[in-house]
Amino acid sequence: MFRYTVGQVGLGTVNSFSTAALPLFMGTYLIPNWAIGVMAQERSLVSTFVQPLIGRLSDRLPASSLGRRRPFLLIGIPLTALALISLATYPPLAMMLALVLVFSVASDLAQDPYQALMVDITPSEQRPRVGAVQLAFGLVGQALTVIAAFALWKDHQPLAFAFPAVLVLLAFSITFFGIKEPDSPARPRGPRPAFLSRSYLRDIWGRRELVKFLSAMFFIWFGQGGGIPFMTRFGVEDLGLPANQSFTLLLPLLVFGVLASLAAGRLAARFGYKPVMAVGLGFAIVSLLAASTVVHTYPQVLAVNTFIGISGGLIFAPVFPLFSELIPAERVGELTGVATPIWSLAQPVGALFAGLVADQIGSIRGALAVVAVAFILGLALLLTLRPVRAAAREP
Fold this sequence. Notes:
It is a single chain. This protein has helices spanning 2-5, 7-27, 33-40, 42-60, 70-87, 93-121, 127-152, 157-178, 198-205, 208-227, 231-237, 243-246, 251-271, 273-293, 298-316, 319-324, 332-361, 365-382. The chain is mainly alpha-helical and 395 residues long. It has 18 helices and no strands. Helix 13 (251-271) runs antiparallel to helix 14 (273-293). It has one domain (2-180, 196-382): Growth Hormone, Chain: A, CATH 1.20.1250.20.
């Protein structure tokens, strides 16, 4: 479990740097809020087109000594690290955008095959615990990146870029060399409809509980994408904090998210995935409404972010384990690749919409209100879900 889930530390560092540090970095290029929000979630936008193909390919990759998931880690992770280190040179605008694109595509090459590997190596009854530990490690990676950015951003900024690059390489080295893929994994059998053909889309639409789950997750990730890129800017613009201190606003989200995610694994095993996620969304909605209206000081924001961190652990720890129960095992890479772009697209759309609202009213608080509304819609859809465990294999 450790050797697999420690890879999420690396993804956590990359995600945290992308959404917390890159917006400040791109602000030096005099880019408006709405564009910063979109580019901070640019990885998610690229995922919309890349990950369906990567997931489908990873299910069908011919047998080799590396397995069918690890080759994608071998290519994607080093390229991700290289792009981060190159960004530290503050290249011209066009080069910066090109490097962010490379960063996005490379991390996408690794992310879905890594996630699908959980289903390959983990029995269904262990997935709540594995998912909880995986999220906890991801939040640890995010916290380490925030701490490094706080310490290095002002006087040693290139090291703030190097830190996530080195950490993602180290974390995935443990996963890559420490995990042996199954000799005979579940594979798709027989011909399949052409990708995105009418029959293919009809097959997806016929999985009604899966469609409801993906619809709920669209709004949840819409809110997530609309909130996280603006948290550090909220500290600078609305609270008047120094740029490096604004990173500390993320620490309660991450520390209490780790604790809540570990608890979520036990709670989901006992009460089910859906109730745990619903309680987390309720906490988040109340906290975000408070942050967008009545919270005005640094200690108050830290307190509110504590509750948002708890809610994040409860919401996101059960996501992939619940998703894996709604799909057949032999198509996990493919359907993960289909699902991920849905909420990947939601993140930049949410960031764009939240940024436009923030620009319109002249305050980042508008972005936080958008997140609360999106979570309300996600909760409403989640409550209609009736989880039914998918058959291990399709007929």
